[in-house]
Write a structure and sequence with these properties.
This protein has seven helices and three strands; from the N terminus they run ααααβαββαα. The protein has about 170 residues and is mainly alpha-helical. The chain starts with a helix and ends with a helix.
Length: about 170
C-alpha cells in the first residue's frame, strides 16, 4: 500500500511541477523528475506520507470548494476595498474564536488557511477546540461566526468519510 501512495504522490507532484513550470526540454524535465523523487523520499523519511488514502479522499471535493473559496476571496476583496476607500473608514477590529467542526488535521488546516486567505481575516492561533481569528471589520467577523466556511470544510471531510464507509 505504501508503494501505491508513493506513486500517486510522485505522479501528482510531477504533474504540478510540469503545469507550473511550463518547460518541457530534457534538462528542465530531468530536474523536475529529480526534485519530485527527492520530495517523495523526504516525505517518506519524515513519515508524512499516509497510506490510508484519507488525504486523497478529501481532495476529491476540493476543486468545487476552491471555486467557492475563490468567490469568497473576491467578495471579501471588494468589501475590504470599500471599507478602506470610504471617507470614514469603518474598521471594527476584533479577535474572535471559532470552533472547528473538522476532526482531521488536514481539514482543520484547510479551514485555518481558508480563513487567512480571505481578506479581512487572519487565523492568529490554533488550539484543540478551534481557532482564534483577527477580523478587520464586523462583516468579516459575522462571516466567520456564521460558520459557512467551517461547514463547507466539514462537508469535504464528511464526503471522504462516507466514501470510506462504503
Amino acid at each position: 500500500m505504501m508503494y501505491h501512495s508513493m506513486v500517486i504522490a510522485a505522479f501528482g507532484l510531477m504533474l504540478l511541477w510540469l503545469s507550473l513550470s511550463g518547460y518541457f526540454n530534457f534538462l528542465q524535465v530531468s530536474f523536475g523528475i529529480l526534485s519530485t523523487f527527492f520530495v517523495v523520499w523526504l516525505t517518506i523519511h519524515l513519515k508524512l506520507l499516509t497510506t490510508d488514502g484519507a488525504r486523497l479522499q478529501i481532495l476529491r471535493g476540493y476543486p468545487l470548494y476552491l471555486v467557492w473559496l475563490t468567490w469568497e476571496i473576491i467578495v471579501s476583496n471588494i468589501l475590504l476595498a470599500k471599507i478602506i476607500l470610504a471617507p470614514k473608514m469603518e474598521l471594527h477590529r476584533q479577535i474572535i474564536h471559532t470552533k472547528a467542526n473538522q476532526s482531521s488535521d488536514l481539514a482543520k488546516a484547510i479551514y485555518a488557511n481558508s480563513i487567512t486567505l480571505t481578506p479581512g481575516t487572519l487565523t492568529v492561533d490554533v488550539d484543540p477546540d478551534g481557532f482564534t481569528v483577527h477580523s478587520m471589520a464586523k462583516t468579516f467577523a459575522d462571516d466567520i461566526c456564521s460558520d459557512k466556511m467551517n461547514e463547507r470544510v466539514a462537508k469535504l471531510e464528511r464526503l471522504s468519510t462516507v466514501d470510506n464507509v462504503k
